[in-house]
Amino acid sequence: MNSRPLLTSSASRRLLRPVTDLIDQRIERRIRSAAAAKEAEDAVEKKQLRDAVELMKHHQLTLELLLGPRARGLSRIVSHGPLNRLYSEVEALSGDRDAAVRNVATAFRLLVALESLGVGRIAGGTMNICGKLGTIPLLDPPNDEILEIGTLYGMFSAGLVRMMERDGRSPSVTIVDPFAGVQLQPGSPERPDPSGAPVDEHAVRTNLALAGPAGVGARIQRGFSENADTRAAVSDRSYGVIVVDGDHSAEGVLADLQWAEQVAAPGAVIVLDDYGDPKWPGIKDALDKHLTGETRFTYLGKAALSAYLRAS
Ligand SMILES: C[S@@+](CC[C@H](N)C(=O)[O-])C[C@H]1O[C@@H](n2cnc3c(N)ncnc32)[C@H](O)[C@@H]1O
């Protein structure tokens, strides 16, 4: 007796072949159409991805033009680490976290607006500029007289006027700078500014005008801050804010700090720019030395690359 199962016998296989062939064809067709659908889906996804990358590149290019380093030497694009550090430093100086965050953000927008509209640029890194613009009003200077030693394009003073006015103050600015056509810095080569704009009084006036009447009314004294005539011309008042950002050599900074001792109002805020910057070691040396002598100034702290002092 034949014990082979009925369906596997050669006779039944032959008999069933048309059916199995039909089933095979159907399966194959299904597989092929599923593969084609997947391929089409992949192609759509790839195109969407390509379009998205292209769009991102356009956004990046646009942002680069707006905030990138071209024509100002340094990028204004921010990253989390330095920004969070700056918030904490401004908070430590001012004792107010919310105000620190608000002022730094406000200062950032102001910086971008001024550099977009003004002649030249503000010198230095983004965090340092936002730190100075944000912190000074929060330290509640005792009066609204501001002295900036070393102004380059006057754009920082224009920004400070705005920040003080945003705090309900009525700033009055005095500026001392030699306006040599380029930025003067002992030991550094004199080269054209990355912005391409000449460092002159005309540019400073244009930039100050961006800050409205207080900017237009700013007093500009051309000369070197160590020069006796220059000092005499602007030592007619006590300043509530003094920004020391002129000659960056240790001797230059020492001389400016000594002068600041004489013209700072009681309670004045003194800002020493580029403090701790490895590019300008003389600045920290000068302050450290100054603070070991007889002084009205107390070191309050540091935000980015600026030291803050309070006069007694
Ligand atoms: C770093 S820039 C100032 C930047 C400006 N405060 C800002 O935030 O954009 C230094 C300026 O100080 C000027 N300067 C150099 N030596 C000086 C001096 N002895 N007295 C006053 N200004 C001086 C330079 O010509 C330059 O314009």
Oligomeric nature of the chains: single chain
Uncertain segments are none
Whole-angstrom Rg: 33 Å
Read across the widest sheet, the strand sequence of neighbours is 3-2-1-4-5-7-6
Count every helix, treating DSSP H or I runs of 4 or more residues as helices.
10
Briefly, what CATH class of the largest domain? Alpha Beta
Largest sheet: 7 strands, mixed
CATH architecture tag of the largest domain: 3-Layer(aba) Sandwich
What fraction of the residues are assigned to beta strands by DSSP? 5-15%
Structural class call reads alpha/beta
Distance between the termini: 120 Å
Instruction: Return the CATH topology of the largest domain.
Output: Rossmann fold
CATH superfamily of the largest domain: Vaccinia Virus protein VP39
Structure write-up:
The protein is α/β, with parallel strands linked by helices. It has ten helices and seven strands. The chain folds into two domains: 12-67; 80-311, Rossmann fold (3-Layer(aba) Sandwich), CATH 3.40.50.150. It has a seven-stranded mixed β-sheet with strand order 3-2-1-4-5-7-6, sandwiched between helices. Strand 1 (145-149), helix 5 and strand 2 (172-177) form a beta-alpha-beta unit. The chain is elongated, with a radius of gyration of 33 Å. The mean pLDDT is 94. The site of S-adenosylmethionine has 23 residues, from strand 1, helix 5 and strand 2. S-adenosylmethionine is lined by residues 122-123, 148-152, 155-156, 176-178, 180, 183-184, 199, 224-226, 245-247, 252.
